[in-house]
Write a structure and sequence with these properties.
Helices cover 39% and strands 16% of the residues. It is an alpha/beta fold.
């Protein structure tokens, strides 16, 4: 399997369950090392880069984000321990969740419980979103971050992620068409192989694996962000 992600590009990786999408996310963030082959960041073998440098530049947000048994502020600040209270509040405001946090019983000092279970799935994702803003990564890897959310929560979280994606390289791992159409380019994998690559529109018109996965009749005009608009917004 071989593909590249261009600087400032939003690349969607799609495929059926079990095709290896999440493995790509773990390889891209060096939670796994490849048995063979190389994962490179700016032509550097990821294995030659210090882990703390990788964590500073590449952020992974998963379907179930990891939250500590700590306050909301501490969970947001986790990626940048030196961040001030103002930095944390600014990240929350930029992520569109400041009002939600301030409505909690103790605001930013509300303890979220073990694994964040005092919050709903959507609320946990919104805390993870603020954390991603605060870390200001070079590369953002989103592994099905809205898959387990109800439609209302999904819409709010998706809007926030569109903001954090602007101006940075993003890898979107998903099996959902509404996520794939937010990308500038799509890589389709099947059986741990790249079988198609192109813009969402190109792949639909091609009538191959992507079209079968995502319904040839899907109306791109209904998508929140078209590939062209997404590129313009990020200045790619």
């Amino acid at each position: 399997m071989s593909f590249d992600v261009r600087p400032g590009e939003a690349l969607a990786i799609v495929g059926a369950s079990g095709s290896g999408k999440s493995t790509i996310a773990y390889l891209a963030t060096r939670l796994l090392d490849p048995d063979s082959g190389v994962v490179r960041l700016d032509d550097r073998d990821l294995r030659t880069i210090a882990l703390n440098e990788i964590r500073r530049h590449i952020v992974l947000v998963e379907q179930e984000p990891v939250l500590l048994h700590a306050t909301v502020a501490e969970n947001i600040r986790y990626v940048r321990p030196d961040a001030t209270d103002e930095d944390v509040r600014e990240a929350a405001a930029t992520a569109g969740i400041a009002t939600f946090i301030e409505a909690l019983p103790h605001g930013y000092q509300t303890v979220v419980g073990e694994r964040g279970l005092a919050l709903s799935a959507g609320e946990r994702q919104r805390v993870a979103l603020a954390r991603a803003f605060l870390s200001n990564p070079t590369v953002l890897v989103l592994d099905e971050p809205t898959a387990a959310l109800d439609p209302v929560s999904e819409r709010h979280v998706a809007e926030g992620y569109e903001l954090v994606m602007r101006g940075r390289t993003t890898i979107l791992i998903s099996h959902r068409r509404d996520v794939a159409v937010r990308a500038d380019r799509v890589v389709v994998i099947d059986g741990a192989r790249v079988v198609e690559t192109g813009t969402p529109r190109e792949l639909l018109e091609r009538g191959g694996v992507f079209a079968r996965l995502f319904n040839v009749g899907y109306d791109f005009q209904a998508a929140a962000v078209s590939p062209a608009n997404a590129s313009n917004d990020r200045g790619a």
